[in-house]
Specification:
Number of strands of chain A: 10
Distance between the termini of chain A: 17 Å
Strand order of the largest sheet of chain B: 4-5-10-7-9-8
Radius of gyration of chain A: 17 Å
Shape of chain A: globular
Oligomer: heterodimer
Number of helices of chain A: 7
CATH class of chain A: Alpha Beta
Order of helices and strands of chain A: EEEHEEHEHHHEHEHEE
Number of domains of chain A: 1
CATH topology of chain A: Rossmann fold
Helix content of chain A: 25-40%
Strand order of the largest sheet of chain A: 6-7-8-3-9-10
Largest sheet of chain A: 6 strands, mixed
Strand content of chain B: 15-25%
CATH architecture of chain A: 3-Layer(aba) Sandwich
CATH superfamily of chain A: P-loop containing nucleotide triphosphate hydrolases
Amino acid sequence: MGKLIEIRDLSKVYERGKQKVEVLHHINLEVDEGDFLALMGPSGSGKTTLLNLIGGLDLPSGGSISVGGQRIDQLGTAALAKWRAANVGFVFQFYNLMPMLSAQRNVELPLLLTKLSSAERRKRAAIALQLVGLADRAAHKPGELSGGQQQRVSIARAIVSDPTLLVCDEPTGDLDRNSAEEVLALLRALNRDHGKTVLMVTHDPKAAEYANHTLQLDKGTLVEAEAAMA
Amino acid sequence: MKYLHLVWASLFRRKTRTILTLVSIIAAFLLFGLLDAVRTSFNQAGQSANGAERLQTGSKLSFIQTLPIALQQQMEQVPGVKKVTYANWFGGAYQDPHNQVFSFAVAPNYLDLYPEVAVSDAERKAFAETRTGALVGERLAQRFHWKVGDKIPLQSTIFPDRAGSKNWSFDIVGILHATDKKSGGFFDQMFLLHWKYFDDTTPYNRGTAGWYVSRVADVNQADRVAKAIDALSANSDHETRTQTEQAATANWMKQLADIGLIVGSIMGAVFFTLLLLSGNTMMQAVRERTSELAVLKTIGFSNRSVLAMVLAESLLLLLLGGVIGLALATALIPVVSAGSGGMLNLPVVGADSWVLGFALMLLIGLLVGALPASSAMRLNIVDALAGR
């Protein structure tokens, strides 16, 4: 299996007023296509920063990031937005759904950026909702769904445009154990059955057990990599 | 169009706040529609096709100064003048000083110069033969429930009779009908009495006319004729100023009040307040949606798309409120006109007002949306998602 992500000598420095804070120090990392990787580490270790850089939400201060052979660190803002729309699905800790839209409409959002017809958009959103087991909740607004259901809607939104890479930032951080396990099982199914590459930041060792590998970050450096339970 | 549901949903995310803002916009554009109708009504006065052939001659000093009656004969001798008539302001009120009536004491040939005022031959004959006769506009007659044959009292706010009483008595002998309601609606509210009766009865007039009206043979010669008429009284104690009926009416209106300035000032204040109010609403709406906008950018919406969506939201708000407000004005104007008992004859909200209204909606919408849209466009995804 080929490498989907190749990171070389990656650094990220934030400027907080006059102070410069180096969050990531010369990271080197390769992730296989179809892998499920958990990123762990204490708060402030740079997990989310690394995830943001891989997902094309931020640009590095140094080094390079290639995803699917594309040097995303060299893309401009508009090109990066297009690249994200086509290649990455995002899952957040707090779901970040549009509260005024139904589950169906939330899932359709990434498809608004395509040339698909309205009927085709509806059809694809319905399939994505079916895949996460929420076909019967399509007309419900986020406020009418439980936390676990909302997170599943956000996963449906992440996969609706069929991206190669799923980037998940603490996807179970706001869920009870049962809901968390449902979400993690769903991510594992998307990885195993649909070939999605999943990168997941988590504090929870039990969540990390769902991944194929776990990487530990500390103070902006990759300190340990261990084989996780398959 | 595919973003419309998203823009609509964002706009009504906080229903109460959006509806209250909408009500303000509706009120502002309702007021705009009504006041623009008032302005248009004043602008249309004296703009009839027949009005273009008429010149009005008044005192150069002030419109309250009168002119000698002998001027009529001299004016009729000016080349290019076809016919001359004259009139005086009477200043009548019916029963209550608040019930002002547009009343003029006119020469026997007055209506010859106003073909846009229809009156039957029999009624005109009756007017000519009745010293205390009066012709009244149809809306004025409706307002006070007058009919031909009625004897009505009118109080002049200016002119007493020789005994010192300001109470005058008239016999209604006919009804005036404006043939063009748009430009001549004023005639439907007019009250005409005999100049001779007026002049004989009041000691204040003593053979003078308030103003003269002359019809020119050729409209293109109106300027030359006006100068020739004014030359008749040059260096006398009653110098005149002659102008087209339209210009004279506009000047007269301006002496009453500068309607354009008043309407402009009121609307300026209203729209400035609306700008602040709607701007505040949009700023709040965008500020509390920071994380949602960040998510849109995360999933691939470009900075320009986000800018366009916020601008579209603000334009939609203004268009929605503006169209409802102007539509309400369109529906209310006939009701207001009817309710005024003929005192107000407002034109319907025309194409010009709609075009101006739409331009204002777009301009205010863009101004109101510019700042929040620019903030949304510049939003940093990482900072916004982190709640910074």
